[in-house]
UniProtKB/TrEMBL annotation:
UniProt keyword Nucleus, yes or no: yes
UniProt source species: Rhizodiscina lignyota
Protein name in UniProt: Zn(2)-C6 fungal-type domain-containing protein
Family matches, as PANTHER family: ZN(II)2CYS6 TRANSCRIPTION FACTOR (EUROFUNG)-RELATED-RELATED
One Pfam assignment: Zn_clus
Lineage of producing organism: Eukaryota, Fungi, Dikarya, Ascomycota, Pezizomycotina
Length: 498
């Protein structure tokens, strides 16, 4: 093994042209500016040392030779390996020299999919170890479709996005075929495919049509997990996929002001009972948030009782307070003073992991929405409270909400400052930021900051939903797509209001 010195971390294109590379993901800034496809980055640690044994033997036999094609294209293959997707075994090498060719566009897209979305616990990292064992094979087409969408957004390539949608449509047909067969309809592969179809809609979401399609995929996933029953919890994969569905349904219920289906709550309890690895904090938080969904649904009823809703909301808020008091140390975050323009209120948080920031923001969103119900009921004047008590509780509720909103905003800069923001992280930040922007009495400066951050996250991660939310929030207070008065979907939905 020979030490080769510290290699450059720049992408191949920037190294070739000797230009400064900002090492952005999924594509560096230079490549985005020039409209070219960024070839990715090398595995720097793997390049520090090189096995020279075979090369030494060749020198002894044939003398020194010039650089080979494989050495010239190694940055492409190293970038491919960095994504964690290793090509399957090929035929044994012949006596002729074997050339290591750059990966195909499909390979690059699949590699980018895993690089962007399976890097952290809590993402879809459960897929990579098992997807090659599935029978139908349409998951790889979905990986390619999502990867092409990432590439298209980072290079402004309309042809790539067109190809991504073609793959998506092809997989959708395959999934519909699978759903018609009793054996494959409830398989792990089919359920994962439905979740990834929903994810594709989130990544490419720039019109209300995508949001409605995402909603339909969530309904499809609900039907599948209901049909799978408790037997799905007999495998680790079955548990992880169910938790993925459960989290999607919580967001869906929040957006539409509906209850999480009773069957899902029962399955969640069954999963909690058999999963030895269940995180107690996350488990209890889901059930508290399920109560928040129920509270918000009850509020939409014409027969809602303000006094009863206020009491229910206060009970839920007390559960949130107890949850914070019992959260494990490995979720604790650090407050960092910083007065740069990237931060709000002169500080930001650093978290021990992506999973820690995610669970904190789930808590904050749920509690903010609970406090919003408290404020609305107090302002209704129908709770039976005297004016002094009403004023005092309003002040307390608004102060709590303001702090929770500030904490969500403080959770964002550390990931943007890291220089390695990936789609999985950026996607998880969109809903919390949207909740902040649509909170009653939010400061205009805070709302403006949120819109800016949504655009930046979208630009850096190629998740177009962030740009769509930012555009919608710039024009109106909140997305009214799920309102009971929203018109029926038509072919003109691309132009309808969010």
């Amino acid at each position: 093994m020979v030490y080769c010195g510290k290699p450059s971390k720049s992408c191949e294109a920037c190294r070739t042209t000797k230009t400064k590379c900002d090492k952005g993901l999924p594509s560096c800034g230079q490549c985005i500016r020039l409209g070219r496809l960024c070839p990715g980055y090398r595995d720097v640690e793997a390049l520090l040392f090189r096995n020279e044994t075979n090369k030494t033997v060749r020198r002894a036999r044939y003398g020194k030779r010039s650089d080979t094609v494989s050495e010239l294209v190694s940055p492409y293959t190293n970038s491919y390996a960095e994504y964690g997707v290793i090509p399957g075994p090929g035929p044994p090498p012949s006596s002729a020299r074997v050339l290591d060719l750059p990966p195909s566009l499909r390979d690059q897209a699949i590699g980018l999919f895993f690089h962007q979305l399976s890097a952290e616990p809590g993402c879809i990292n459960y897929i990579k170890p098992v997807y090659r064992t599935f029978e139908n094979g349409f998951l790889e087409d979905l990986f390619e479709s999502i990867g092409l969408a990432f590439m298209s957004a980072s290079t402004s390539g309309n042809n790539l996005m067109s190809e991504a949608w073609k793959k998506y449509a092809s997989v959708l047909r395959s999934v519909n075929t699978a759903l018609g067969d009793m054996g494959s309809a409830t398989s792990d592969e089919t359920l994962i495919a439905v979740l990834l179809l929903a994810l594709f809609e989130s990544i490419t979401c720039d019109t209300p049509r995508s949001l409605r399609s995402w909603d339909r995929h969530c309904d499809g996933a609900t039907a599948i997990v209901n049909a799978r029953g408790t037997e799905q919890f007999q495998s680790e994969l079955g548990l992880k996929v169910f938790y993925h569905v459960r989290d999607y349904l919580m967001i869906q219920a929040y957006q539409k002001r509906v209850c999480i289906p009773r069957t899902i709550l029962e399955l969640a309890c069954a999963a909690d009972a058999v999963d030895p690895t269940i995180d107690i904090a996350e488990k209890s938080l889901f059930h508290i948030n399920a109560s928040v969904c129920s509270l918000r649904h009850q509020e939409t009823s014409t027969n809602a009782d303000p006094s009863g809703l206020l009491s229910f909301a206060k009970c839920i808020d007390e559960e949130f307070e107890n949850w914070v008091d019992t959260i494990p140390d490995h979720y604790k975050f650090t407050i960092v003073p910083d007065n740069s323009p990237d931060t709000l209120n002169g500080l930001y948080h650093t978290y021990p992991s992506f999973a820690a920031s995610r669970i904190w923001n789930i808590y904050r969103c749920g509690r903010i929405l609970t406090q919003e119900v408290v404020v609305r009921q107090l302002l209704s004047g129908q709770t039976g409270l005297d004016p002094w008590s009403t004023s005092s509780q309003l002040q307390s509720s608004r102060a709590t909400t303001a702090q929770l909103c500030a904490d969500i905003c403080a959770s964002v800069p550390s990931f943007l400052k890291s220089g390695s923001l990936r789609a999985a992280t950026g996607h998880a930040l969109l809903w919390p930021l949207y909740v902040v922007a649509t909170t009653t009495n939010v400061e205009p400066s805070t709302r403006s900051w949120v819109v800016t951050e949504l655009r930046e996250i979208s630009r850096r991660t190629a998740v177009l939903q962030g740009m769509g939310l930012a555009d919608a929030l710039s024009m109106k207070w909140e997305i009214t797509l799920w309102s009971k008065n929203a018109r029926i979907e038509t072919v003109e939905d691309d132009n309808m209001e969010w």
